[in-house]
């Protein structure tokens, strides 16, 4: 069997297929495994420059760590912030912007008094089958809460726009609540939980690809881009490698664990309906700028914050900063004399932000950190990681689109798809999609 793509989806699929006794070859186009899970060195310290956490409230990530025999760690008690209306404020607790506690929302100062009053006067609205998260919350609680709370929260996960992202795909709980009745009433009844929301591996999520590969019992080829896929009498033929030296690999079954755009190209000939649907899924490009400072150069107050989000309405360049040194004890412990934080930039359709060179991205990050967090020191080192077309955009109707893709792919024996384009972009959801693909491709044998 062949798995195409060596991100977390492909690695999990390859490992599970090999564990069930099959011969598995994983083909990864880039020189390195891991996809959006990657570590790099800043000031000699190894930190994540891609994904840095996974949701702990879904089981797949934690269960996988347990299977691999590694412990998980949780963020410190440092609290998240939000830059709004000229100040860095506490991020009010909410379900994707729907506040659990209106008094806490008002006290945070994130919204104007009128914005809070509008949110408190929840309007009636019927959400229908699917609607954007922004339109759903906006119709009930007003535009200001969308602009200042929903946008930055969704922007942090999808690098997308609240008025485009599907509520059914991205926040199904919210849609279910809207169908049942008042969002505010139901949100206020959500019990405060002490269970940690996020988890990570000590040393970073960038360790996960190596852990999945080691002892996984499957063969890996990197720098092996799959350029074409064709059905044969007995299975599939993959064209691999540079156009000047193409090679054909035959396989009885194939799992495509690649992002939507390359998957669309690979399915173009034999599964054109799925290819057309996949080609219609947009993707946002983002960049992560990691900055290292001398510990004594940072204001003490920042050590109690895990970072902050920035709503697009504020018209700054960065959309978030994660104070990794305050959020993760393992980062803090790397070197007591050095602190590492990161900024993220780039939203769907706003690629111009990323057209600056690396020095330019560092410069705008520093300017925003100075204005919003009072960090005026020069960094001792920096690292810029660009992620082109990295985050699939779940537009309204995404779930139906995915159902159509799966119906077309399932009609092809020995073929399955998985990864961030389908059931969620977070690591646990991606692991879930890989396990679903393995079940589908082995069921048909
Ligand atoms: C900056 C950033 C931060 C994030 N932070 C978090 C976070 O904190 N928590 C979280 O849960 N999620 C986070 N995410 C999302 C999450 O990391 C991704 O959704 C997930 O890792 C995607 O895994 P994947 O295997 O589906 O795809 P990818 O990681 O994209 O892997 C796909 C692989 O396929 C390869 N490939 C593509 N085309 C071909 C081809 N033709 N032939 C061979 N190989 C090919 C690529 O090189 C790549 O290695 C973040 C994403 C980004 C970009």
UniProtKB/TrEMBL annotation:
InterPro entries: Amino_oxidase (IPR002937), FAD/NAD-bd_sf (IPR036188), Protoporphyrinogen_oxidase (IPR004572), Zeta_carotene_desat/Oxidored (IPR050464)
Location of the protein in the cell: Cytoplasm
Cofactor: FAD
Catalytic reaction list: coproporphyrinogen III + 3 O2 = coproporphyrin III + 3 H2O2
Pathway recorded for this protein: Porphyrin-containing compound metabolism; protoheme biosynthesis
UniProt keyword Cell cycle, yes or no: no
One Pfam family linked to the record: Amino_oxidase
Catalytic activity, EC: 1.3.3.15
Presence of the UniProt keyword Cytoplasm in the record: yes
UniProt keyword annotations, A-Z: Cytoplasm, FAD, Flavoprotein, Heme biosynthesis, Oxidoreductase
Amine oxidase domain mapped to chain residues: 8-441
The family this protein is said to belong to: Belongs to the protoporphyrinogen/coproporphyrinogen oxidase family. Coproporphyrinogen III oxidase subfamily.
Protein's job: Involved in coproporphyrin-dependent heme b biosynthesis. Catalyzes the oxidation of coproporphyrinogen III to coproporphyrin III.
Protein name: Coproporphyrinogen III oxidase
Species: Nocardioides alpinus
Gene name for this UniProt entry: hemG
């Amino acid at each position: 069997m062949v798995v195409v793509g060596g991100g977390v989806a492909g690695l999990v699929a390859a490992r599970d297929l090999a564990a069930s006794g099959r011969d598995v070859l994983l083909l990864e186009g880039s020189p390195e495994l891991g996809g959006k899970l990657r570590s790099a060195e800043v000031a000699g310290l190894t930190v994540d420059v891609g994904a840095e956490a996974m949701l702990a409230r879904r089981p797949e990530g934690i269960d996988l760590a347990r299977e691999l025999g590694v412990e998980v760690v949780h963020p410190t008690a440092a609290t998240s912030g939000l830059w709004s209306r000229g100040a860095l404020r506490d991020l009010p607790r909410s379900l994707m912007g729907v506040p659990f506690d209106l008094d806490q929302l008002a006290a945070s100062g994130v919204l104007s008094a009128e914005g809070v009053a509008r949110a408190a006067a929840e309007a009636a609205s019927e959400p229908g089958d699917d609607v954007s998260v922004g339109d759903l919350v906006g119709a009930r609680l007003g535009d200001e809460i969308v602009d200042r709370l929903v946008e930055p929260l969704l922007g942090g996960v999808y690098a997308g726009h609240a008025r485009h992202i599907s509520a059914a795909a991205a926040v199904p709980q919210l849609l279910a609540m809207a169908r049942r009745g008042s969002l505010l009433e139901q949100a206020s009844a959500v019990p405060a939980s002490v269970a940690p929301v996020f988890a990570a591996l000590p040393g970073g999520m960038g360790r996960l690809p190596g852990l999945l590969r080691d002892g996984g019992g499957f063969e890996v080829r990197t720098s092996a881009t799959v350029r074409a896929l064709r059905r044969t009498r007995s299975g599939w033929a993959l064209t691999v490698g540079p156009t000047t030296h193409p090679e054909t690999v035959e396989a009885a079954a194939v799992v495509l664990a690649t992002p939507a755009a390359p998957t669309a190209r690979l399915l173009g000939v034999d599964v054109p309906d799925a290819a057309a649907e996949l080609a219609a899924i947009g993707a946002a490009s983002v960049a992560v700028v990691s900055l290292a400072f001398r510990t004594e150069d940072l204001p003490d107050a920042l050590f109690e914050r895990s970072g902050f989000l920035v709503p697009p309405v504020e018209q700054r360049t960065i959309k978030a900063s994660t104070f990794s040194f305050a959020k993760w004890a393992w980062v803090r412990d790397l070197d007591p004399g050095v602190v590492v934080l990161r900024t993220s930039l780039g939203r769907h359709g706003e690629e111009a932000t990323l057209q600056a060179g690396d020095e330019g991205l560092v410069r705008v990050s520093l300017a925003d950190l100075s204005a919003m967090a009072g960090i005026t020191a020069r960094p001792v080192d920096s690292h810029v990681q660009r992620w082109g077309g990295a985050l699939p955009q779940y537009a309204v109707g995404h779930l139906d689109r995915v159902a159509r893709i799966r119906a077309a792919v399932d009609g092809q024996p020995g073929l399955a798809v998985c990864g961030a384009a389908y059931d969620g972009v977070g690591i646990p959801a991606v692991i879930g999609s890989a396990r679903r693909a393995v079940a589908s491709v082995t069921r048909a044998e």
